[in-house]
Amino acid sequence: MNIKKLTVVSTILLSSLALSAQTISSTIIDKKTNEPIPYATIQLSEHKGIITNEEGKFSIALDEQLKQIDSIYISSMGYQKIGIALNTITDSIIYIEPKAIELSGVFISNKNLSIDEIIDNVKESVNQNYSKDLSHKKLFYRQSDFSDLNRMNIKFKKSTIKEFNKKFIDSVISIIPRKSAYYTEALCDLYGNFDKQKLNIIKGAELYDKSNDGSMEALSEKLEDILKKNVKPNSYLKIKSGWILGTKVQMDSIFDANEEAAEVKSEVEKPNKNQENYFLNYRKSSLKDLLSSMFFQEDSKLNFIDKSGRYKFELIDYTTIDDSSVYIINFEPKRGADFKGTIYVNTQDFAIMRVDYENVKNLKNFGLLGISFHDTMYKGKTIFTKGADGKYSVRYIEKTRGNVFGIDRPLKIIEKNKFVKGRRKQNELSLGLDIGAGEISKYEVVIFDSQPITEGEYQSSKENKSIKPQYLSKYDPEFWKGHNIIEPNTAIKQFTAIEGES
Q: Which residues form the signal peptide (predicted)?
């Protein structure tokens, strides 16, 4: 079967694409369906490019180097690659038409291969198809975190500390936010490969409602103040929950700001945005996790190629990506595998140029004595681009992780002191907990530019360890002016903190 010569000519309707402030902004639209085209590539040069967001939108900041180019090239899976002269662009919408592909006329040199032979060729070609060399990548990172406290019932049972009464417990419940959204963005230089990285953050922002954090910080301070006033210096707290053994917590270790206690605290606590270098370290850790989860990486959860015997593959159709013909292959689990999805395989070199995936079952389930945890969501897509050396590198990563947590059990906090005459038990707080919450984190990474570097260049690269993000209480279109990023979606653009600017 051969790919029929294109009968499509893309039509560009131009009405308000802004060149003002040296920025081009537009939306790519399917001419036939009038639907936006997400994840389309806008190629600026051999090594530079951007990608449309999930709503088909993009912006290009024309720096001095980009002002020298004559044209941009737009391509998307199943559409003709077109070139547009920059000096002719004056519209806010670009309409393109799909390629017409007749399967009976498609010429594919490997047309007689079975689906098993295609997958075997993919597996055998992995090492030669994907570049693991050192590089310098210019990228934009966005993380969107959403939390939903869907159940919060605390039954007050007993308290010998007068401040810890039912009224106080009810006030605690009322102050805890039920839903929250937290967005992080960073423009970065990433040096390295899949195994080692250095990250230099050029600019970053955090978009969230500070009133939520303020409420929790005020609550924490209030709880600490009550404990300090009512717990004796040599006391310890024993925390008991149902049949779980009690845990001792020394009060002087909690409240005394000595060096040893600070070191222990830093080891056992989760990172938070007040810690030194948190913004850099968390972004670096997240990028490392995203890169290590590529389907061809060792021990990746996405094992549909490495453990292909656990999956069923089906050749669905053919399409084109850029100028390459690709197989469209669906996969689904057999024998208890975790994922289903679609891969787009180059018919000539058997490289997977794009993969869309999602889990078909919870990846982890834990439940014991009223405590439950379920790893519910692991889905995303990865798009690769072919370089001048014939090898593929990552162009775009989208990944969404989600989990739900629950606790339904009694809780007792008992103060004991062995230095006090008489009964060791000094105070007690007894509650019944019934709490349920869910969290979703979405990661987006677009790589605009990738250049090979030497080991010496990697070693000499620097990280900006003093970088701190700028807090934004609402979306500010001016913040990234002059920089190429992946366009924010409508939810981000409409986000406004309840309390406004802080």
A: 1-21
